[in-house]
């Protein structure tokens, strides 16, 4: 038999059970030090008996506290970041009546120094209550994150992490696990033997580093007949195309490529131009270009990070922390991944 859920206890219920006035009960629940110990104990005992749980969001609304959160990221993918923005906006719209607002800081230049400059400006912004950021370096922004924290602006990282910094927590995919998944998929596509190359960019980026380690660890553990090489490319789109083209031309025995960054669609296009449909390609980030190349069988698998999901969770976590000092349960909050092939087009909501 299905259990019937009883209505949640209210402050009025606690007042009736304890025998104290509603005003006194509210003082106890809000931590007012003026309440005598005996009274506080009686009210809290009544609350426990009724299994009363404080509605923190309602309390925040009553206080009419306004909060502005800065969201800082470098735009490196035209498909990835619109979904990131949508996730943030979805949560902000749901809780705008609670005084929540967000401000985006989109950094068009590549490199951690540009991001550091924007963060330095936020330290002086009195209207900013917290910062959610996707760090462009695993280590080089730690001092700036510490500076933000010292100015009373807590930091949450999303999508990429600075694990040794003073950030509250990280929200996003498990990059190492994503790399292992990529290794398993590519190994199965090429029959667990042959030659594969890890194509990577911005080696200071946590996602790139952990994805590479996960990929190589899986193959070394399970596929000893696969030879692994690496191609590390500077942060320059022209050089990227040139170096990948040279890789394809100079390695006729190459069987597979694992692309650790958002340029999977670009690698797929270069494979198409080189006429190397024999190469299997596994990479990240869904886009119209990637889907078209998947349809033509130049991209085999996209590991979708679900950016709309983890950006929503990141803002939700920051909102709870700033309003109620509600600490995250974990320092690392991992979100789900999706594995997409050409057969999944109808499930993505994207039409060609």
From TrEMBL:
<dbReference type="InterPro" id="IPR025997">
    <property type="entry name" value="SBP_2_dom"/>
</dbReference>
<dbReference type="Pfam" id="PF00356">
    <property type="entry name" value="LacI"/>
</dbReference>
<feature type="domain" description="HTH lacI-type">
    <location>
        <begin position="9"/>
        <end position="63"/>
    </location>
</feature>
<dbReference type="GO" id="GO:0003700">
    <property type="term" value="F:DNA-binding transcription factor activity"/>
</dbReference>
<keyword id="KW-0805">Transcription regulation</keyword>
<keyword id="KW-0238">DNA-binding</keyword>
<dbReference type="InterPro" id="IPR010982">
    <property type="entry name" value="Lambda_DNA-bd_dom_sf"/>
</dbReference>
<dbReference type="Pfam" id="PF13407">
    <property type="entry name" value="Peripla_BP_4"/>
</dbReference>
<keyword id="KW-0804">Transcription</keyword>
<dbReference type="InterPro" id="IPR000843">
    <property type="entry name" value="HTH_LacI"/>
</dbReference>
<protein>
    <submittedName>
        <fullName>Transcriptional regulator, LacI family</fullName>
    </submittedName>
</protein>
<dbReference type="GO" id="GO:0000976">
    <property type="term" value="F:transcription cis-regulatory region binding"/>
</dbReference>
<dbReference type="InterPro" id="IPR028082">
    <property type="entry name" value="Peripla_BP_I"/>
</dbReference>
């Amino acid at each position: 038999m299905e259990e019937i859920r009883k209505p949640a206890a209210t402050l009025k219920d606690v007042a009736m059970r304890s025998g104290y006035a509603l005003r006194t009960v509210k003082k106890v629940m809000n931590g007012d030090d003026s309440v005598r110990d005996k009274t506080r104990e009686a009210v809290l005992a009544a609350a426990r008996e009724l299994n009363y749980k404080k509605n923190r969001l309602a309390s925040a609304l009553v206080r009419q506290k306004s909060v502005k959160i800065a969201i800082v990221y470098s735009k490196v993918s035209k498909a990835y970041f619109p979904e990131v923005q949508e996730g943030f906006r979805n949560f902000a719209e749901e809780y705008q009546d609670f005084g929540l607002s967000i401000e985006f800081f989109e950094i068009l230049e590549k490199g951690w120094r540009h991001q550091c400059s924007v963060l330095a400006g936020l330290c002086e912004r009195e209207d900013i209550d917290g910062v959610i950021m996707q760090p462009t370096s695993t280590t080089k922004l730690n001092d700036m994150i510490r500076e933000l924290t010292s100015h009373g602006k807590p930091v949450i990282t999303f999508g990429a992490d600075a694990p040794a910094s003073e950030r509250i927590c990280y929200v996003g995919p498990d990059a190492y696990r994503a790399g292992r998944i990529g290794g398993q998929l590519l190994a199965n596509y090429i029959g667990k033997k042959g030659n594969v190359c890890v194509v990577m960019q911005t080696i200071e980026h946590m996602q790139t580093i952990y994805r590479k380690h996960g990929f190589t660890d899986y193959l070394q553990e399970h596929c000893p007949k696969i030879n692994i090489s690496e191609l590390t490319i500077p942060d320059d789109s022209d050089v990227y195309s040139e170096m990948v083209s040279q890789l394809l031309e100079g390695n006729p025995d190459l069987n597979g490529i694992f692309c650790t960054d958002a340029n999977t669609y670009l690698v797929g296009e270069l494979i198409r131009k080189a006429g190397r449909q024999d190469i299997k390609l596994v990479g990240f980030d869904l886009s119209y270009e990637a889907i078209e190349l998947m349809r033509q069988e130049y991209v085999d698998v996209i590991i979708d990070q679900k950016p709309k999901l983890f950006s929503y969770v990141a803002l939700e976590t920051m909102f709870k922390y700033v309003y109620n000092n509600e600490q995250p349960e974990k320092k690392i909050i991992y979100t789900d991944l999706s594995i997409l092939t050409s057969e999944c087009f109808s499930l993505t909501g994207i039409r060609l």
